[in-house]
Amino acid sequence: MLQQILNDMWVDPELLAELDESQKQTLFCKMREEQVRRWKMWDCSDPPKPPHSSRASRKRVEFLLDAQGGPWTWVMGEHPDDKSIDTIMEEEAREAARRLAEKEAQTLRISMEAELTELLELNKKQREEIEVAEQRLEAEDIYCSADELKSFSRPPPVAVHNPLKRDAPNPLKRDALQEISFNKPHKVSQRVALWEKRLMEERTSEIYKKIQKQKQDAVKKQKKLRTNRNNFGENKKGKRKKLKVR
């Protein structure tokens, strides 16, 4: 059975389940020895070389040489311009925070574009209704007859209450709507871009701080676990010494 397993380099799971731990370790060691033996036999034999083109290749690999004439190597951290591992990890964390903030800003921009489109359509409809109401008032004044004008004196002008203006926005919102809908769309786009940039920077800073806090909490947790393990080991050693003394 063992020879068959070594030949196939495979163990039936049912047979493996019946073995205890010592037998499993022995079996695995035997399989490893057989694997090493096969590798050595392969190395000692002369395996066929892969075919290659008969043409002389002009490609060459030349390594830089150091002062002693050996291959030049660069150990990271020895050069004054090398970044430390803390700096590299900080840059990676900032880049991850920036990508996440950019994704959030893009999602928010899409929702804002939908809201602005709806607001522009509503503003256009309100302006059309106001223009129709003003034209109707002007038409009533034009078609008033001359006899009617002579028969009675014109009453003082009364402020026309337009129901469309009842829910008019405050001056800041009205100016913003006019700026968005009529005059300066390029300035609005610039403001939206600046707002998006500022929001992305703020979110990047918040996400970076959150990532750093998570790393600090993980380090504290690991230190606490190590301290508990050390205390447990010392207590265990102390108990063993007491038992030996007794």
From TrEMBL:
Q: Which UniProt keywords apply?
A: Coiled coil
Can you name the source organism?
Lygus hesperus (Western plant bug)
Name used for this protein in its record: SH2 domain-containing protein 4B
Gene Ontology cellular component list: cytoplasm
| Superkingdom of origin | Eukaryota
What sections of the sequence does the record tag as coiled-coil? 109-140
Basic residues: bias regions: 237-246
Biased region (Basic and acidic residues) positions are 210-220
Region described as Disordered: spans on this chain: 210-246
